[in-house]
Amino acid sequence: MRLFVAIDFSELNDYFLSLQELLPKNAKLSLTKSFHLTLKFLGEVQPNNIDDVTAILKGIKFEPFSAYLESVGIFPTENYIRVVWVGLKPEEKIIGLQKQIDEALKPLFRKEKDFKPHITLARVKYPEDKKVFIEHIRKIGVENKKIEVKDFRLIKSTLTSEGHVYEDIGVFKCE
Questions:
Q1: What is the pTM of this model?
Q2: In which band, very low, low, confident or very high, does the pLDDT at 14 lie, cut at 50, 70 and 90?
Q3: Which of 86, 102, 133, 144 minimizes the number of CB atoms within 10 Å of its CB?
Q4: Count of domains for the chain
């Protein structure tokens, strides 16, 4: 089964949906329906390995912290636009948790490269005019909304004809 580790941001769903309405109309977009911050993508995991992953994640200790929405951006570059995202701050706390998870899972999974805390708003299939698209993105203002991070989750992702369906396999709370 396809798994990833993430922080759930569903309490801000309505706000993220309102941001999606502001996205440029001059592009073919695939809008995200569920909002989370992926800390580590695990990929295909055999069912008999889930207990090992869960045991490792239970050992992660972290203090609760606040995260704030910061700005809208794009990945990977302005010449090759594939994702529109909302950035988060303070990055240090999020990156610290991500590195701890990455290190703990190192015996089972490859380490992450170039982790950037973000929440995906949309996948970009094709912008008709990149320059206009980028200018529009830069004008989108983001409220400094706050979320209290008190847990992270192991999530199963199933691709259906309606898009991805997510299911929590485990919730790991701070101590």
A1: 0.91
A2: very high
A3: 144
A4: 1
